[in-house]
Task: structure prediction
Amino acid sequence: MKAPRQWPLIIILGLLLVLVWLVFDSLGPPNPLRDSLSRIISPLQLATKRAWEPVSGLFAGLRRASDLRRENEALHTEVAQLRNQVILLHEAQIENENLRRQLGFKSAVPNYQLLSAEVIGRDPGNYLQYLTIDRGAEDGLRRGMPVLTDAGLVGRISQVSRNASQVMLLTDPSSSVSAFIQRSRATGIVQGYLGSELIMRYIPQAETVVVGDVILTSGLGGYFPKRLVIGQVVEVRREDVEMFQEATIAPAVDLRDLESVMVLLNFDPIELPEE
Amino acid sequence: MFSEKEGRSARGVAIGLYLGLPLVLLVALAQAALVNDIRFLGVKPNLFLLFIVSWVLLCGFRQGLLLGMIGGIVLEVNSGAPFGSTLLALAVAMGVAGLGEINAFRGAWFLKYLVILGGTLVYGLVFVALLGATGHRAPFGATLARIILPEMVAHLLLMAPVYGALHEITRYLEPKAVEP
Result:
């Protein structure tokens, strides 16, 4: 192959160009040569890069497909585990709040020996209002023991087996509790009545009962200790021809949503008749 | 009166029982543990009664009675009523459902509704009578108005989905044994 005659000229021009470039560079920025070239090349570079990106991503994706699949599976597993942890933490938080409330209540009433219990079942029908709790004779439970929460009275133990017990709620039609109105000290009997409400009967006519009055246990009869909160008056029924007046009571405890309760261990109720 | 449906093979009965046993236990446990959160017209629907009455209509009285008694024991454990009250009330309600096999409306579309109305009423009346007889306070009028009648309406509305679901299950397992 024959070498072109212009080679020495091209080499000299090239060297001159390098020299000029170096001189411009040494004079400090901006180098007009570099600047001009850059203006032409930069948009081309950018366009090329952008055009290549999807293709490059595709190749990279193809190369990493198996890695991505594994990573995706691992992430799915991790998300499921984290979701479970969040649920468990939320449950633990609720349990923690319940226990803190119970602990606060126990501190507030140091004379009471209280045993916490979980609600594990409910009467399946509408006719009776009973709960099943996870504590029984092995834990020292006996028939008649009062059951309460930090908000107030729940009911009493009606049946005890080795590891579980049944609690007759205040709202059961067979439940009767001696009570008094905190403001006026008027006494009466609080009975359950087919549903979520309570009726306070046998309140003397001469007494004034107003909506919002707080009802407490009176301790009469020996079934419950004195001054446990039962609820608040929501309605009063008074007939002039009757000997007594009646009041509808909203229980202090939401008996439908109970998850845990406390059993008062150091109270000896009067022996209940066998059901 | 309470004979098995015609054409029922021994194998069919066995399949029905094997399927029915876990189902009935599941429904009884759900009734005791979960249904408390469900209120329909102010009352807890008795899904177990709906299930067992539907089973009697679909698979016959004897099978229904057997499953009803097994599931009834689960309910008894959680009930505050004297032991046996739920079982006895259930047995009477299933007797009412069993009458559906011989009455003049057999095969009629509305039979299941008649049966659940009658079954719920009889179940409630027997249960309240037993409660009263064993010393529980059970005001009859108030119970009828506030519990039994709302339960009847609730069960009337729930009967179609419960019966429909059970019909599909039993038809899948035992196509010839179930009425169309």
